[in-house]
Structures are given as C-alpha cells and as structure tokens.
C-alpha cells in the first residue's frame, strides 16, 4: 500500500507519476534515522545522562564507521565526502560528536596537518544499537513480504541509492531544474 502525502499534489505533466511516488517515499525514509524511540533508547542505553543524541552525531558515527572499514584514514574531509556536505559543516558536526564523546581525534600519522577520526567505545555502542534498531525495524516492515520481494526491493533500492550518491549534480544543472519547476508551477 502506498501512502500519499498531501504536501504537494501538483505534479508536473512532464514527470512520470512513479517518479513522484519515489520522491515521496525517499523523503519518508529519513525517519529510519530520526525515530524518536531510537533517540530515547540511545539516551537510556548509552549513558548520555539524559543529554539528547543528535541526528548529526548519528550521521557522523555512520560516516566514520562506513569510511573506516579497511579504507585507511578517516578525516573530516572523508566525512564531508561521505555525507555529501561542505567540509566546514563536517568539521562542526565532527566537533559536536567529539564533544558528545562518540568520536576521538588524533594527529594523522600520514599528514600532520590532518586529524585521524575514530569512534570511541561509546560511539561504537551507539553505532551497534542504531544498526540493530534499524534492521529490526525494517525486518518488521517487510515481515510479510516474500523472500523474492525483499531481495528485489533490496536490489532496486541499493541501485537507486548508488545512482543518487554518484550522480554529478552541478550547480548549473540544479538551477535549470529549479527554473523548470518554477516554469511548470506558473504555467496556466
């Protein structure tokens, strides 16, 4: 069953309706990261003394874990690339994760101008708990799907995510897309 959002039912006549459904579904998937139950459970289980665990810290933890899997040094630049954000934003988010005790920073053995990032024991615990929470949550969502449906969905979603991550969106192309959307919006 597809749940339709009512935030914008106007669809450009030039865009296939399935593209609109994919866009809406992709927006909803952000909830896998920011479920209030997950953040509350993490506060309780990770000894944060009632301090909220920020979504940005979860993203930094995920980025460091994803980059650190045998790929060499993890730097602020690698976190910025992984999260597709500006290096100054990544630096600020990494700083917050360090202050929260999830990440440690040491001088790089390769280049003294850079810092090597690692998850602390607390950061590893948060990563394990969030991974487990999301996997159990997804398992419940697809529990009544056949093995074939789950496999097909996993393949297509992975393919979609890979394409989205590797699509070279240039500023000029983005501006053209925005202008086209404005033109469609203003069309009689």
Question: Would you kindly provide a written description of the structure presented here, covering whatever features stand out?
Answer:
It is a single chain. The protein has a two-stranded antiparallel ribbon. It is mostly helical. It has one domain: Arc Repressor Mutant, subunit A (Orthogonal Bundle). α4 (55-67) crosses α6 (87-99), α4 (55-67) crosses α7 (121-141) and α5 packs across α6. It is globular and about 55 Å long. It contains nine helices and two strands.
> In CATH's first tier, which class applies?
Mainly Alpha
Low-confidence stretches: 1-9
What is the CATH-assigned architecture?
Orthogonal Bundle
Question: Could you give the count of β-strands?
Answer: 2
Largest beta sheet: strand ordering: 1-2
The radius of gyration computed from the alpha-carbon positions, rounded to a whole number of angstroms, is: 20 Å
Topology pattern, helix = H, strand = E: HHHHHHEEHHH
Average of per-residue pLDDT values: 80
Domain HTH marR-type: 19-162
Organism: Actinoallomurus bryophytorum
Keywords: DNA-binding
Protein name: DNA-binding MarR family transcriptional regulator
Features:
188 residues; mainly alpha; Arc Repressor Mutant, subunit A; two-stranded antiparallel sheet; 9 helices; globular; disordered N terminus; WH-like_DNA-bd_sf; DNA-binding transcription factor activity; DNA-binding MarR family transcriptional regulator; MarR/SlyA-like; DNA binding
